[in-house]
Design a protein that fits this description.
about 325 residues; mainly alpha; MetI-like fold; about 75% helix; single chain
């Protein structure tokens, strides 16, 4: 196991290096740039623009800019925001806990809801329950998350006025757990709705395939209770493909978090990333992309390690 873990970590290093290089080059060759806003200002002279280019190192060749950024990143210096002048590391980590809270809750609730629904749908195939949640799954996969978020705002905030429409706390009010939960309900549901729908269908399909296997019929022939057959024998094997799906779903959750945070004005990485795209704030964009890429690599690694627990036949060498 330890050798496998070390090998996967070593394999991730060139992967992250390649992602950083491609991302860096693509940002630099895009039209416009962080100085585009200054060029439209009649009070800013060409000399001022040239001075900013030298200050930020934008007058150097791309490869030199990348090398300087890489060395600084490895040393823990993530640079300074072109727009605010604040340290990127400070801006990222001020918002990162908010995004982690939103993503982890939506991830957890999606698993808690989707897996039992998928199991029960497989055991009650073609029942009324199965048909209802099949329709639910199709709706969940089909509707865009931003549209769903807007509809939630119109219903629960504008019409019923049950839930707050934006932010993660009520301004001017002391911290309250109830207040925080109210602000979390809609963003978590919107972010997790698509996952609930798709994961429940995958769980249903995997469970249906598993309960038709010979070892399940053998377990039933031995006289084991149905609950033991399903939870101990069938579920453990049916979860193997679901674990892969959970690991590969991280990019989609991150992308969904960006949209959801914008809809609900959630003060996380998503809003910071979108604002940085508009202003061509390269240091923040690179830091956000590398954090996302690292999260995806770690998620896939954890999914692979979970195989060994779920299926003893899998050996890591």
């Amino acid at each position: 196991m330890s050798k496998y873990l070390i090998r996967r970590i070593l394999q991730a290093i060139p992967l992250l290096f390649g992602i950083s290089l491609i991302s860096f080059v693509m940002m630099r060759i895009m039209p416009g740039g962080p100085l585009a806003g200054y060029l439209m200002n009649p009070k800013v002279t060409p000399a001022d623009v040239a001075r900013l280019e030298r200050l930020w190192g934008l007058d150097q060749p791309i490869i030199i800019q990348y090398w300087r950024w890489l060395i600084s990143m490895l040393r823990g210096d993530w640079g300074w925001s072109y727009k605010t002048g604040l340290p990127v590391l400070e801006m990222i980590f001020n918002r990162l806990p908010n995004t982690i809270l939103l993503m982890s809750l939506s991830y957890l609730i999606s698993i808690i809801v989707a897996i039992p629904i998928g199991i029960y749908s497989a055991l009650k195939r073609y029942s009324v329950f199965d048909y209802i949640f099949t329709i639910f799954a199709f709706i969940g996969v089909a509707i865009p998350s931003f549209w769903f978020g807007i509809m939630m705002l119109l219903l629960f905030s504008a019409t019923l006025q049950w839930l707050p429409s934006a932010g993660m706390m009520t301004v001017g009010v002391e911290f309250s757990l109830i207040d925080r939960i109210k602000h979390l309900i809609m963003p978590v549901l919107v972010l997790g709705f698509v996952n609930m729908a798709s994961w429940s269908r995958y769980m249903r399909s995997s469970m249906l395939e598993t309960i038709s296997q010979d070892f399940i019929r053998t377990a039933r022939a031995k006289g084991l209770r149905e609950k033991v057959v399903i939870l101990k024998h069938a579920l453990r094997n049916a979860l193997i493909p679901i674990v892969t799906l959970l690991g590969l779903s991280l990019p989609a959750i991150v992308g969904g978090a960006i949209i959801t945070e914008r809809v609900f004005a959630w003060p996380g990485i998503g809003g910071l990333f979108v604002n940085s795209v508009y202003s061509r704030d390269y240091p923040i964009l690179m830091a956000s992309l590398m954090l996302t890429a690292t999260a995806v690599v770690v998620g896939n690694l954890l999914a692979d390690l979970a195989y060994g627990y779920l299926d003893p036949r899998i050996k890591y060498e």
